[in-house]
Amino acid sequence: MLARLSGALRGRSGWTLGGAVVSVLALVGVWVFAGGEPGGPPDPRARQYKEFDACLLTDEKGIVTGAPAAPVWEGMQAASQETRARVTYVPVVGEPSTENARPFFNSLMQRKCDVVLAVGAPQVEATRAGATEHPKARFVVVDGPEAAGNITVVKSGDGLKEAVAEAVRRAVKASSGA
Question: Which helix (H) or strand (E) holds 101?
Fold first, then answer.
């Protein structure tokens, strides 16, 4: 019987049957691993974000505990919990200068960040210089010169986290027209 079966699977009919079996197994695998029925409900654990991006420009230390940007990041996350705005950060690596920070700032503008926050003198200066070229975006700088136009200044210290959270909340609210 095995000899007859192996003889039947040789040639064109064997290849056709083998291809059909492989195709059926592939479709079953995709269905099982892709989550069953297509168009099913979204994962209820997945967070639904608004179309609003708050982006942080930091020094090369980033957002690690103790870094100047850590409380700013915490404030951004607190605001994100309430407003469902997406928050991201970009550390400026290399020489700590305004000229070096400028391409990193530009990358945030290319990503169409709705509000850009900046911590550290080179990042703040690059943001202030670039803000005039992007009048529709909002900017929040830590310990920068006086606020002007689309730039809000927050002061470092004990209230920094809450000041940042409030600035992001206001930006989200202003963008939705509410």
Answer: helix 98-110
